[in-house]
Amino acid sequence: MTTKDIEQKEEIFTRDFLLALSKWQNGWAENQEERRKIADELVRQCEKLAQKFKTVNHPCYRKRFIKSGELIPILIDNYFFEGVASWTKDIEYAKWFKGRVKPDVKHVMVFKHLPLPQEIVVNIMSLWEDEEFKKVAEIFKTEDREASRALFNFKDNQSEIVLRSTLKGNEIEDMVGISSSFDELCDMAGIPDDKREQLSIKYARDPNGLDIEIPIFGGARPTKEAIQKTLIAFRELMETSRKNNTYVDFSKTAIPHADDLKHKLD
Predict the structure, then answer these.
(1) I need a labelling partner for 6 at 20 to 30 A (CA). Which of 40, 106, 185, 250 fits?
(2) Which of 38, 16, 11, 19 shows the shortest CA–CA distance to 151?
(3) Confidence of residue 103 (pLDDT cuts 50, 70, 90)
(4) How many domains does the chain have?
(5) Is residue 91 part of a domain?
(6) 146 belongs to a structural domain
(7) Phi, psi (degrees; rounded to nearest 5) at 172
(8) What is the pLDDT of residue 209?
(9) Residue 111's CB: how many other CB atoms inside 10 A?
(10) Per-residue pLDDT averaged across 76-104, rounded?
(11) How many angstroms separate the CA atoms of 104 and 150, rounded?
(12) pLDDT, tens digit, for every residue of 142-175?
C-alpha cells in the first residue's frame, strides 16, 4: 500500500497532511512570513481531523520571548492574539526550549492555558497514540525520507499541541529574571560577613551550585507579584496622566499581523 492508495480511500492522513505536519515541526528559522504560510497549510490540512485529535483536557504551556510593544496588550488588555503556535503539555520542556535569553528581548514569559476546543488545531500527542496514523506515517517515511525527517525526529517528544494562540496576562505562569548577587542573597538570608567566604567556597565546589546573577525562572508566586506591581504602576501612570492632562504614548503597542488574525476565533 502507498500513500496514494490511502488517499484514494479518502483517509484523513493524506500525504499532504503528513507533509504539512512535518513542515510545521521542521520550523521556519524565525522567518515569520514562512511561519504563516506553513501555519495556513497546517490549519487547512487539519480541518477534517476527527475530534479526538483536537481534544486537550490538561493545561498547555508556551514560553514566549516578548517582542517590543507586545507587553502592553498582554498585560493591560489581557489579550494578544499571536496566530497559530505550538504549546506543550510539559512546562519544563517549555522552559528549556530555545533557552532563557535572546538578543534585544527584555521579557521571557511562560504562559499556562487550558485550551477551548475551537482553539485546538491538532494535538500531536494524540496522533502518535493512533495506530492508523503511525502506519501511514511509516509509509510516508518509506516513500520520502527527507520530507518525513522532522515528523520522525520530533514525533510526540515535545508533548506538542498546536493552538490558535492568545497570550493573556492573567495566564503568565513564570518569567525569567536575573538572580541576585551572592552578597544580596547573604543579606536576605541574614548571613554575617565573616561566614560568607567559607560559604562561597562551599557552593563553588557544589556541582549544583547557586544561581547567582544569571537568568533564571522566578517561580509562580514571585511572577504573579511582579505582574501585580506592574499593573499597579500602570494604573498610577494613567491616573497621573488624567489628573495632569498629559499624554501617554501607546503608538508602539504591537498589533497582530493580518495573516495571523485570519485564524482568530470570532
Answers:
(1) 40
(2) 19
(3) confident
(4) 1
(5) yes
(6) yes
(7) -75, 120
(8) 60
(9) 24
(10) 95
(11) 29
(12) 999 999 999 999 999 999 999 999 999 999 999 9
**Helix, strand and coil percent figures for the chain, each rounded to 5:** 50, 15, 35
Rounded Cα gap, residues 31 and 251, in angstroms: 25
Judge whether 185 lies within some domain: no
Q: Give the dihedral of Cα atoms 7, 8, 9, 12; nearest 10 deg.
A: 20
Helices 131-143 and 15-26 pack at an angle, to 10 degrees, of: 80
Nearest-angstrom CA–CA distance, 110 and 224: 12
Mean pLDDT of the chain: 90
List the grid coordinates of 102: 535572546
The domain in which residue 142 lies consists of 3-174+255-261
What are 64's strand-pairing partners?
109
pLDDT tens-digit map of 223-247: 999 999 999 999 999 999 999 999 9
- Domain for residue 34, yes or no? yes
Cβ partners under 8 Å of residue 5, min gap 6: none
The grid cell for 147 is 520530507
Phi, psi of 256 (to 5 degrees): -60, 145
- Asked if 7 and 14 touch (Cβ cutoff 8 Å), the reply is yes
User: Given this model, what pLDDT does residue 196 score?
Assistant: 74
Q: Match 485546538 to its residue by C-alpha cell.
A: 120
